[in-house]
UniProtKB/TrEMBL annotation:
This is Kinase. The keyword Metal-binding does not apply. GO terms for molecular function: ATP-dependent polydeoxyribonucleotide 5'-hydroxyl-kinase activity; double-stranded DNA binding; polynucleotide 3'-phosphatase activity. One of its GO terms (biological process) is DNA repair. SUPFAM superfamilies: P-loop containing nucleoside triphosphate hydrolases. InterPro entries: P-loop_ATP/GTP-bd_All4644_prd (IPR017101), P-loop_NTPase (IPR027417). The keyword Kinase applies. It comes from the Bacteria. Keywords: Kinase, Transferase. Gene3D superfamilies: P-loop containing nucleotide triphosphate hydrolases (3.40.50.300).
Length: 148
């Protein structure tokens, strides 16, 4: 089984990447859709209890937020591969993409996430880590390197 955590600023391409790469294979859990952490936790627990492949499509900017999710996934009765995708992006690029979205987030949400953002580390418990970036309108995925 596979549990994927997205890490990145609002409007960095996370949901679009999900639709392009995982829509047909993984259930998407998004705080934007569910609105509360309690609902998010309930859906995640249901997915883990039923051996469902899952993508957690949130900003997950801090080690603490990711740690709570990773801990829950590790407690599942089935062994999950925990895969992190870090979306490299600049605040200005996210602000520009946000203007093009149907459902915009307040600019302050982008600035706030950027201020909180901590790069993921292997020590958090990931089995795999990747960088995702946009290049000429397409997603480019690269294996994680400890230096940027």
């Amino acid at each position: 089984m596979e549990a994927i955590l997205f890490i990145g600023l609002p409007a960095s391409g996370k949901s679009s990447f999900y639709k392009e790469r995982f829509f047909n294979t993984h259930l998407r859990i998004s705080l934007d859709l569910l609105k509360t952490r309690n609902r998010e936790r309930q859906i995640l627990n249901a997915c883990l209890a039923t051996d469902q492949r899952v993508v957690i499509d949130n900003t997950s900017p801090t080690r603490q937020q990711r740690g709570t999710l990773i801990e829950a996934i590790r407690a599942a009765r089935v062994r999950y591969q925990i895969v992190g995708y870090y979306f490299q992006s600049q605040v200005n690029d996210c602000l520009r993409r946000n203007l093009e979205r149907a459902e915009r987030v307040p600019d302050v949400a982008i600035y706030s996430a950027a201020k909180q953002l901590e790069l993921p580390t292997w020590e958090e418990g990931f089995d795999q880590l990747f960088y995702v970036r946009m290049h000429e309108g397409k997603f480019v995925v690269e294996e994680w390197r400890d230096e940027i």
